[in-house]
Write a structure and sequence with these properties.
Four copies of one chain form a homotetramer.
Chain A: H1 13-22, H2 34-46, E1 53-57, H3 60-71, E2 76-81, H4 85-88, H5 93-97, E3 102-106, H6 115-124, E4 134-141, H7 152-163, E5 169-173, H8 176-183, H9 187-190, E6 198-202, E7 212-216, H10 222-231, H11 240-250, H12 254-274, E8 280-281, E9 289-294, H13 296-304, E10 310-314, E11 320-325, H14 332-343
Parallel strand pairs in A: 2-3, 2-4, 4-5, 5-6
Antiparallel strand pairs in A: 1-7, 6-7, 8-9, 9-11, 10-11
């Protein structure tokens, strides 16, 4: 009953097998390995983007911060949701990598920026000439921090506003596969066809040891990204082990199957919760992450049963909100035991 | 015949086995895994430093740059050898992480800083009050970039000069195990007993997929380092896979056995080279890295035989210097085949 | 009828006379001039702070950004009002000088942070361990950006909350003298007696060509500030001209007389505005800065008469808000002509 | 007998008069003043560069660091003389403003980079792909830190090498007027006709209170510079006082007359020194700065006579090197008294 984070899961056997295979013999370091050639081709095919620049890093924070630093100057504002991972969970990595860019925090229910709120922020930022920071970039997150998803059309509506000011658009796709599965979209539809210029294509939360791809659909800034990655200490000498993970992840659509399973477990959990009297969802549950609240007695029962999840700040009425995350390795037994323990 | 870098090697079976074991079940992320508790204890025992702060990162550049940024303010000068890895091979990572500290490059034959050169640099830096940068930190490298080693006594002589100005001292130990084996020293003798305050304890070049430990013997700055690591995107969510590598590395002195083998292969190679007429060593060969030069014909024969190594800039007499690195996976056959091809 | 900013005014004759006097002969550069010795003593006496560190810079942005960078680490959050000058009008200087600290924007009517809003922000920031930025510093502004003032008691209530978390507290006193006159406080009451650790003591808006003092009541960080100032290019070689301005500013309480006049002109303007039917104040007018709104016809009449002021964004009902700033050089004729033009 | 620095001098009456004139009435702030329009036109005419972007700042360090940050990315190497002001006397400002660019220090006798040394540095920097920093910019200084001057032809020879790699070229002209007078060149010949892209056009050392112009001959980066200047706290609200100084400086060639006088005093001093037995020049004296050495007895006599100058580190034979700087305000009596005191 481990629902604290998809990060607490291990990795499927296919990934470890790939590491074993990759371990044979000698390989060129620093991204010059042969597996990376195949990974690049595969990701370009997945995104239907034959010219895209593809880079691998090992953490989501590195992927996001390096991508944003490449997209925005130090005096740029990065428009993002108030509760975005880049705003709340990266200890200021975007500010550090960009040499002091400012995050412009935008409100919106259930983790999603609304076009009106973005339009307002875009209109008022950078309107005072040299005195204020300039408009820099838009960063969206899908699956959002509230467990909801943007459809490609919703993304396109937001990027269109940003592009009206000439801004590049980034997608934090730490749970990209879950968002695809939830919306039934293709990778291209979710990204460049919807106005996204760069995506952090997550692997770690969906079954890898620690690999994320950063993909720029326009490769013009690929060399700058390479330099930023090296300078940030994120270029691996034994890069083949990153490549191997990503290759196995893509092969036979493993990544989509893993996410599909995680979403199914999330749905089973959400439905089960809704069937329990006194339990309410805080946000609509659309992928593999559920926010729900129930009585303190329920929390006590779950704790006694050894359930692991984030217990967020109490609501005014004393009820506490839990964050539950299902992963590729969550089982129906996990879900059902959790529900059973909560019901008491 | 792969002698380009110890980074082109794979990893021993023990390491992959450890990853497999670590993959079982769920684990707390971000360094909270149980394996890390054991790794911390083990490294403290190895260094005879029960209070030391121990952190894992995945690349040597991250280890060095984060350690130095923690030790020196932005207006500090980091004294290091002119050809140190931090000066030449990290694309400015130390400057980036420290927010603009300056590397004060010190000359010295065969990759080693001499006390006289360091004393001169220390005396002249920071002597102009607020106008110039201040003395910040000393950074030594062992094994050096020239394949030579410092003895603990030599390190102590240099750190004593730095400590005369109150400076913290860092050791880039990307090849720490090789330096230990070459000098017959203990980890404590090579570090805190010789005045070292923080060490980048390398694993990647000596058989890991990508793990380095950063150890501060005085834990006062441990929390600052944690924040810098997170902010730099170097805190792994599935941290257990770093911990597992390091645990297997330390177990049964695997790390020392791997380095001992690499050094033995380096010695075999050096001795074989010296026995070939017309071959000269550019630097004394003391660990697993050899710099030697020979005729262009020799290079041609090696190339034809498929040997891989760095071919450095030609000397004034037209001879070229090669850098050859032996690793844990180098075999006597590799060495002998190389020598045979060179002899022609 | 120049009410665009107190920055559009010139300087009183006393200041130019001081520059002339200071111009005699040779003087040590970089802050070593004899006038600076007297300025330091004078400011320590003004603030009843015999140990305070006193530094001069030429712009308010430099004063604020250097002070904050000295007080907070790069991973710190600086708590400030949503519309603070450091948030909106310095093009990200605080983020730049601090190497990426984050401004935590706090709401509050009329430019003033409320204790409840600050308490909430303090409680939620830094509560997620290494994942989020840490609590860094509190920065208040007096006179606020809305033309209102904090009393010393109000400041103390806010700094007490910050100090509950061990945070240093900064006061942006670009209009410090106006705030003193408006509240009838002493410099000590407004600063260290109310929990302020560092103050940007403004001179430029109140009659200098370009000088601000940065005062730290605990001198422990004085040398760090010196290095940051030099490194930021804000240490003047011919420093005597900054010292001379500040000396003349303090002499015979010139600074207080100038601010008193500016506040009186502000009050005259506010009272006059309130007497005009259809004119409303947007914020309470407490010092030398007035925010008011009136019909578009009024704006047209003022424009025709050559009045200069900031015309802010229209309110939902079509009325526009004006920002009017009185300065040491504003005359009663200026005020009365403005009111007359608006009345039509 | 003040020869410590041209920074210890005051300013000529014309400059103070200009401040007085500029003080009349109200003026737009932040560079929008009318005087700045004239200054821009005047400097464009002086440099025969009708499209140039012209900006004013108050210190030489700000001028250099902002210019270089605009010209080079954070991962760029700035090639400069080992003893350049940007390397030794700015407390790391170039590294700070550029977010960690590295200064590549080039040797050369008497403060001047030689083409061979520059060619070597250019060839070896950036030759290791992503691992090392990239070639960023060339920065020359004229008058050099050794008191020597580059001719336009010498500058052109160096910039040609840099431009072979596509690098922008900066000139630190803190003593630009002195260099012009010493070489008999025009501003255009010394700058853009010789391959210079941006110049720090010094005023402070040559008679201003504190104003330097930064001129980009290609205005493409003008807006970026504006943002960097504001963000660095170097945009003055009461900008008219900077403009006024610069306008008076240019008017009737005051700047050239001041520098001509300073150079003449330097020459008188150098000739006088050479006529004294036992006195030797350390560097050729070509402008207003003299490096010479003599016996300790001579230093004692000068000290007793109240002469002020920098007494640099003793030579191996015990003789000490003095740095003497003549300025616009140095008189023949100053020079002759100095020589007389030294002769004893």
């Amino acid at each position: 009953m481990f629902f604290a984070s998809d990060n607490t899961s291990g990795v499927p056997a296919e990934i470890l097998a790939a590491l074993n295979r990759a371990n044979e013999g000698y390989a060129r370091g620093y991204g010059g390995d042969e597996i990376m050639v195949r990974v690049r081709d595969h990701l370009r095919a997945v995104f239907d983007a034959p010219e895209a620049a593809v880079h691998l890093v090992a953490t989501g924070t590195a992927a996001n911060a390096l991508a944003l630093a490449t997209l925005t100057p130090p005096w740029g504002a990065v428009f993002c949701h108030r509760h975005a991972h880049i705003a709340e969970d990266e200890c200021g990595a975007p500010e550090f990598y960009s040499n002091g860019a400012k995050l412009a925090l935008i409100d919106g229910a259930h983790g999603k920026i609304t076009p009106a709120a973005l339009a307002e922020a875009l209109a008022t930022t950078g309107a005072s000439g040299v005195h204020g920071v300039q408009r820099g970039a838009l960063s969206l997150t899908n699956v959002t921090e509230a467990g909801t998803v943007y459809t490609p059309a919703e993304i396109a509506a937001l990027t269109k506003l940003a592009k009206g000011y000439g801004l590049p658009c980034h997608l934090d796709g730490a749970r990209f596969a879950n968002a695809l599965m939830a919306t039934g979209s293709t990778p291209a539809e979710m990204t460049w066809k919807a106005g996204i210029d760069a995506v952090s294509f997550g692997g770690t939360k969906n079954g890898l040891l620690g690999v994320e791809a950063v993909i720029f659909f326009d490769p013009a800034k690929a060399w700058e990204f390479e330099l930023r990655r090296k300078r940030g200490g994120h270029l691996f000498s034994k890069h083949r082990y990153l490549s191997a993970q990503m290759e196995a992840y893509l092969e036979h659509d493993l990544w989509l199957r893993l996410a599909s399973h995680a979403n199914a477990m999330g749905a089973r959990l959400a439905q089960g919760l809704l069937a329990i009297p006194g339990v309410a969802l805080t946000h609509p549950s659309q992928a593999n992450m559920i926010f729900a609240n129930w009585s303190q007695g329920g929390h006590a029962r779950l704790q006694a049963a050894g359930a692991m999840y984030y217990d967020l700040r109490p609501l005014p009425d004393g009820r506490e909100t839990a964050r539950l995350v299902a992963s590729w390795s969550t089982t129906t037994e996990d879900v059902d035991s959790f529900l059973s323990a909560l019901r008491g």
